[in-house]
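> forwarded from #structure-qc
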């Protein structure tokens, strides 16, 4: 179950990098989440302050035009690193080699997939709405980060299943949107 919590929280890093870390910190401080040895600092009060400030700055930045695109360029590697760190911190009973292998592949991979989907969605929003739809996308991403983070702690298996379904749905829709349209047989003969 701890691995599912880690993967769910890692995937939430793809929506917002610091929201899952803040939720993880609060859960660890309240005794609802155990962290692997060496990662206890994530559940400390100084980390709470740092994650809260970073979350506020990140959330606000996504509502400022052009700053949101700049944040996407630095959020992609940051999300992968945070996802890797979160999964490693939840893998309590594994050898260091297995812990970090799982963390990089599952945690970093989940964060990277979700982040890639959000970048494509923001790009599609910018193209189709001239950027006016980006605050709506930012709000949906923030909601996704909060819901996914809480769900990952409360119902970790459900969180992983729902994220997989969401990624499949978004991926299919984005591929359809970017696929070149072929003319239908009826319109092919029209002048």
């Amino acid at each position: 179950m701890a691995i599912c919590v880690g993967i769910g929280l890692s995937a939430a890093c793809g929506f917002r990098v610091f929201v899952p870390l803040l939720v993880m910190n609060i859960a660890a401080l309240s005794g609802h989440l155990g962290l692997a040895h060496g990662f206890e600092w994530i559940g400390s009060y100084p980390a709470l302050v740092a994650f809260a400030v970073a979350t506020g700055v990140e959330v606000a930045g996504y509502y400022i035009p052009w700053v949101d695109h700049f944040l996407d360029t630095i959020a992609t590697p940051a999300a992968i690193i945070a996802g890797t760190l979160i999964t490693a911190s939840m893998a309590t009973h594994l050898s260091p080699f297995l812990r970090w292998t799982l963390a990089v592949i599952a945690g970093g991979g989940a964060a990277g997939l979700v982040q890639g989907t959000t970048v494509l969605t923001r790009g599609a929003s910018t193209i189709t709405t001239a950027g006016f739809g980006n605050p709506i996308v930012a709000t949906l991403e923030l909601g996704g980060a909060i819901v996914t983070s809480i769900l990952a702690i409360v119902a970790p298996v459900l969180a992983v299943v729902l994220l997989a379904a969401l990624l499949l749905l978004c991926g299919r829709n984005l591929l359809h949107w970017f696929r070149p349209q072929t003319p239908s047989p009826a319109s092919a003969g029209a002048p």
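QC bot note: The two ends are 61 Å apart (CA to CA). The chain is about 75% helix and 0% strand.
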